[in-house]
Specification:
Number of helices: 13
Number of strands: 3
Helix content: 40-55%
Largest sheet: 3 strands, mixed
Structural class: mainly alpha
Strand order of the largest sheet: 1-3-2
Strand content: under 5%
Distance between the termini: 75 Å
Order of helices and strands: HHHHHHHHEHEEHHHH
Length: about 290
Amino acid sequence: MTTTARVQAGRLADLHRRKRAGMAEFLLALAEFDEQRGWLALGYSSLFSFLHRELALSRGAAHYRKVGAGLVRRFPEIVEPLRDGRLCITGVIEAAKVLTAENRHDALPKFFRRSKRDAVALAAALRPAAVQPVEPGSAAVQPVEPGSVAVQPVEPSSAAVQPDEPGSAPVQPVELPGAGASSAAIARARESAEPLTADLSRFHVTVSRRFLDKLEAARATLSPGQHGASARSVLEGGLDLLLEHHAARSAPVEAPHPASVAAESGRANPAPSERAAWDIPGGRPTPPWLS
């Protein structure tokens, strides 16, 4: 049994190596095809259209390979890390956002053996995104101050929207809980944090109309000078109160001081004559609050 499992494991490892090498070879060939504009000779308007229509790749897969081919053309040194597994296609996508001729020797190794989440955070740290304000009345509310929260009400039944323009970054679909799931489970499924810099992230969360009403009510309770406080300020203040409340409940309870017990019981400190009576040898035992 052990011998059979070892043979199967060896075969799986070989297939995995072939898959990595195959991706590297594919990107090399695709980069050459793109440089010669072979897609134009076949009647396509772009490399993305060729990948999506001719090769029947999904929009996301087509975008990833288009970006990967472009990066191979600019920096051929990414091919070997792709072959040996140090770099995956998602790492290539994030590396493409920050690699330059000047920083490639230092920056590229930082993407080796990174998960998608780590690669996204690394790219944000190497090249912080600008946080742009949005014109009043626009649909998407982008944070204006660092760390502020973009609150966008979303109907529980709505689905993720795929990009329409060729080559645009794919919007990953959100897998929602099945029928009968609670609203809390649906909300958790749509929570995500998008790194902007090493310290800042844009937090996307699905909320109900009731949540927005409570947010506005919380703003209204602030002092006149704070009525324009951002959602981030209000929510962070609420989190501070929640954490303080939890810390107070979790703090160990100290035994009360004997003098405090006596005071709370209504018994004042005994007079000197009374203390002396307690201290008579052979008399009554000294009470705890006198010891």
